[in-house]
Amino acid sequence: MGKKEEPRVKEGVKENEEKKTWLPKVSKLEEKVDNLCPLLYNSKLEDHVWPSGGMVATVVSGDSSLSLQQRVEDAGFANVVVTPMGSDRVFMYCTRGEDIWKVFNDVVHFFGMLFSDLHKWSSEDIIYERGAWIRIYGTPVHAWNECFFKICVSDSGRFIRADDCTVDRARLDYARVLISTTILEVVNSTFDVMIDGFNYVLKLVEEWGCNLGEDAFLSEEET
């Protein structure tokens, strides 16, 4: 009789550990799906009173909501509150019960320089987006323009603007653009793009700090 073969074990894994593999019971999960119901909440009248007097607007320049609040106060409108809603959208209202629309109509030119797409708040204003600074690595010099950058970030979010160094071509190792995105995870992807018949591999990397999914519109950009 030959020598008895030792049972084969994966490298770096003990035999007992292999037997502890967890397998999801998909069939039972599918049986319970029909019994699931959404969470329910009926808003009260007071829930609609305070936002009904406000307006929703889009930031024109791509500045942070913090700097916009300061600019509004510096212009003499200390009673106007600019509250971020995510990305380049803000909610504006007046303190002390004043009408925000009256304040806006009195100085349309000033607010028009800061905001666009102003409209009265409604319960449909619920889409969440956040701002993110994205670095685009691998862009060839002959494709260095905003039209190309918009294509590069189209799958990740909505193009807002490129920073000054990118626009002025002060550096060409990476382009830096601000986008509005619904993605909460940190953007980090690689993709192929065909330029003039040649294939290029580009990489998108989000600039981020310690907080996952932080909003770039809530912080001042360092200069």
Word description of this protein:
This protein has 2 domains: 45-120, Alpha-Beta Plaits, CATH 3.30.70; 130-217. The chain has helices at residues 15-18, 26-32, 45-52, 65-74, 100-106, 108-114, 146-153, 164-167; strands spanning 55-59, 80-86, 89-94, 115-120, 130-137, 158-162, 174-181, 188-195, 198-206. It is an alpha+beta fold.
By secondary-structure content and strand pairing, the structural class works out as alpha+beta
How much of the polypeptide forms β-strand, as a percent range?
Answer: 25-35%
Oligomerization = single chain
Our measurement of the CA-to-CA distance between the termini, rounded to an integer number of angstroms, reads 80 Å
- Count the domains: 2
Using only C-alpha atoms, the radius of gyration works out to 26 Å
Shape: globular
Taken in chain order, the helices and strands follow as HHHEHEEHHEEHEHEEE
Mean pLDDT over the full residue set:
81
- Strand tally, please? 9
Helix content: 10-25%
The profile of the biggest β sheet is: 5 strands, antiparallel
| Strand numbers in spatial order across the main sheet | 6-7-5-9-8
Keywords:
223 residues, alpha+beta, Alpha-Beta Plaits, 4-stranded antiparallel beta sheet
Q: What's the gist of this structure?
A:
With 223 residues, the protein is an alpha+beta fold.
Write the layout of secondary structure elements.
Blueprint (H helix, E strand, L loop, with lengths): L14 H4 L7 H7 L12 H8 L2 E5 L5 H10 L5 E7 L2 E6 L5 H7 L1 H7 E6 L9 E8 L8 H8 L4 E5 L1 H4 L6 E8 L6 E8 L2 E9 L17
